[in-house]
């Protein structure tokens, strides 16, 4: 037999089965209607094929998709049930049109509402009455000039001066499943974005009594009030605007309950202590009683203590260096200048309340003899020395209040007791992991190369859609493992096992599956698929699929009219 062509289906049949289970294509085609000049396969099938590329390759760049499709054209024709599928249907200009449609706010919101609702029903994600939704914002940066969408704003990224776009997103626990998002310019404040996203989540889930967890930027009275009067619960730390230091000290001094100990599940060590108080909160809609949980984390105490000690040490070193007389170093010439320099350093390090600095002036006189007609004189020089002493009492009192944070919630204790509230917020890293997947790992959004604002919006939405499937794959496998471990997933370390595999690890064993097109002596075209390994069969079974999704690739022969020799 002669080999005509070899394709690499890898994880595509498995991923396609997951996409197909939620009826994605039909929902896309119901809401997005391309221009009459649109040619080729349907809008939904193009998006599905592109999602397969994103999930399989972990890349979002449009210009690479067409060549990728060309290398596995018959596999994609089969798994997408599109015999007329061509690589040109995934050209970058064609995909640009797709993003134009996905970037339309009203159409996307309508699609997301209907599709997410069915997605949750298909995978039975809303059966738990105590659902938890997490909210947070992430930014995407690009090398470009500022525009309507890309603005320079506060950023935790390395390149702080780059224009950026901001996305407020909601995810559903325990899957970390992206639900809804709001995309705005990069200089937009976070606090006004929480309520719009909450409203989108409410329209998708159609349920009250959900617990919304977010950081202190969402802890404004307006956000808490909306959640209260819309029949939901909230949990968030309060900023110093909502609960200042004086109020915190008042809570601590008037504490009338014992501290509740929060322990680490793995080690059993106490990691935090907490107590509760009640506070009446009012707005124009009425008054409600809010639980305030005052928590002191041991790790946070150590971190904050180390931070203030480091600041004190650096401030003292900077002061001594400034007042040291040394060649090439500018020494203060007047007491006013000396005081100004000392004050500037103390303010820079934020330690004015903890360092007591004394500046002394030394005056030296030197007799200058007459010389070449110049009369003798007395030269007066002034120098300044500084001594610093730590205000031990003030520092001790400051450290006594370090590490305390105030959490606010309107949830009843039956829904969320003290320990559960602390542990729930400590799991805020879950939504951060979603952002890490989107920005750096699974879909690698940064940097953003697209220039048109609508296409940038469309791309972010497409990648969040991809993460829905990433989350459900990971959740389904972990659920079906039921605490058991699985091996042969880690590259280069087949003996290593894990009870909590990620989607990328689960797809790794499928990287070397080949589809071989053969022609026998009679000129008949045959298709062969390499046998599945045990670990591949295990992953397929854990996802609720059957091995036939790969065995059925042999039926590609019915679409073989365009197979060419390679």
Write the layout of secondary structure elements.
Elements lengths: L1 E6 L4 H10 L2 H8 L11 H15 L7 H6 L2 H7 L12 H11 L2 H18 L9 E10 L22 E9 L4 E9 L8 H12 L5 E3 L7 H9 L3 E5 L7 H9 L6 E4 L6 E14 L2 E12 H25 L12 H15 L5 E14 L8 E14 L1 H9 L3 E6 L8 H9 L2 H13 L11 H29 L21 H5 L7 E5 L5 E5 L4 H9 L5 H4 L15
Parallel strand pairs: 2-5, 5-6
Antiparallel strand pairs: 1-13, 2-3, 3-4, 6-12, 7-8, 8-9, 9-12, 10-11, 13-14
Our estimate of the beta-strand percent is: 15-25%
CATH superfamily of the domain at 125-296 and 406-451: Transposase Inhibitor Protein From Tn5, Chain A, domain 1
Q: Can you name the CATH architecture of the domain at 125-296 and 406-451?
A: Alpha-Beta Complex
Secondary-structure class = alpha+beta
Q: CATH fold name of the domain at 125-296 and 406-451, please?
A: Transposase Inhibitor Protein From Tn5, Chain A, domain 1
Rounded mean pLDDT is 89
- Counting DSSP E segments of at least 2 residues, the number of strands comes to 14
Sum up the overall morphology in one term.
Answer: globular
Strand order of the largest sheet: 4-3-2-5-6-12-9-8-7
Radius of gyration: 32 Å
């Amino acid at each position: 037999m002669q080999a005509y062509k070899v394709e690499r289906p890898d994880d595509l049949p498995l991923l396609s089965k997951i996409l197909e289970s939620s009826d994605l294509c039909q929902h896309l085609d119901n809401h997005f209607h391309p221009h009459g000049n649109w040619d080729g396969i349907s809008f939904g099938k193009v998006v599905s094929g592109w999602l397969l590329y994103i999930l399989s390759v972990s890349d979002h760049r449009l210009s690479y998709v067409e060549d990728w499709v060309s290398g596995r054209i018959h596999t994609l024709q089969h798994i997408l049930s599109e015999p007329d599928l061509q690589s040109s249907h995934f050209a970058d200009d064609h995909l640009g049109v797709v993003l134009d449609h996905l970037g339309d706010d009203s159409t996307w919101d309508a699609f997301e509402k209907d599709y997410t609702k069915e997605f949750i029903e298909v995978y039975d994600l809303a059966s738990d009455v105590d659902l938890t939704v997490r909210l947070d914002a992430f930014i995407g940066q690009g090398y470009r000039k500022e525009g309507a969408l890309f603005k320079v704003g506060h950023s935790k990224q390395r390149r702080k001066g780059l224009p950026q776009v901001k996305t407020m997103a909601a995810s559903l626990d325990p899957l970390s499943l992206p639900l809804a998002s709001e995309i705005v310019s990069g200089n937009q404040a976070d606090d006004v974005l929480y309520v719009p996203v909450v409203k989108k989540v409410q329209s998708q889930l159609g349920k009250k009594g959900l617990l919304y967890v977010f950081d202190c930027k969402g802890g404004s009275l307006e956000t808490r009030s909306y959640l209260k009067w819309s029949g939901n619960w909230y949990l968030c730390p309060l900023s110093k605007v909502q609960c200042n230091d004086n109020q915190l000290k008042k809570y601590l001094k008037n504490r009338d309950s014992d501290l509740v100990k929060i322990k680490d599940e793995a080690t059993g060590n106490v990691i935090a202590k907490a107590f509760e108080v009640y506070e009446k909160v009012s707005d124009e809609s009425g008054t409600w009683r809010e639980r305030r949980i005052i928590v002191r984390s041991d790790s946070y105490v150590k971190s904050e203590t180390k931070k203030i000690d480091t600041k004190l040490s650096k401030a003292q070193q900077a002061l001594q260096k400034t007042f040291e007389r040394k060649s090439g170093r500018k020494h203060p010439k007047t007491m006013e200048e000396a005081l100004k320099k000392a004050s500037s350093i103390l303010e820079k390090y934020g330690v004015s309340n903890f360092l007591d600095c004394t500046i002394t002036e030394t005056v030296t006189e030197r007799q200058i003899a007459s010389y070449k007609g110049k009369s003798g004189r007395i030269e007066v020089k002034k120098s300044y020395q500084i001594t610093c002493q730590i205000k031990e009492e003030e520092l001790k009192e400051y450290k006594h209040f370090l590490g305390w944070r105030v959490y606010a919630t309107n949830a009843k204790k039956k829904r969320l007791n003290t320990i559960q509230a602390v542990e729930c917020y400590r799991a805020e890293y879950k939504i951060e992991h979603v952002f890490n997947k989107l920005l750096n790992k699974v879909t690698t959004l940064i940097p953003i190369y697209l220039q048109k604002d609508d296409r940038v919006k469309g791309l972010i939405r497409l990648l969040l859609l991809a993460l829905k499937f990433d989350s459900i794959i990971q959740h389904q496998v972990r659920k079906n493992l039921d605490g058991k471990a699985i091996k042969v997933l880690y590259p280069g370390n087949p003996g290593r096992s894990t009870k909590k595999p990620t989607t990328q690890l689960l797809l790794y064993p499928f990287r070397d599956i080949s589809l071989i097109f053969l022609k026998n002596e009679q000129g008949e075209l045959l298709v062969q698929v390499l046998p599945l390994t045990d670990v591949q069969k295990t992953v397929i079974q854990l996802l609720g699929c059957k091995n036939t999704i790969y065995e059925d690739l042999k039926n590609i022969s019915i679409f073989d009219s365009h197979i060419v020799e390679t």
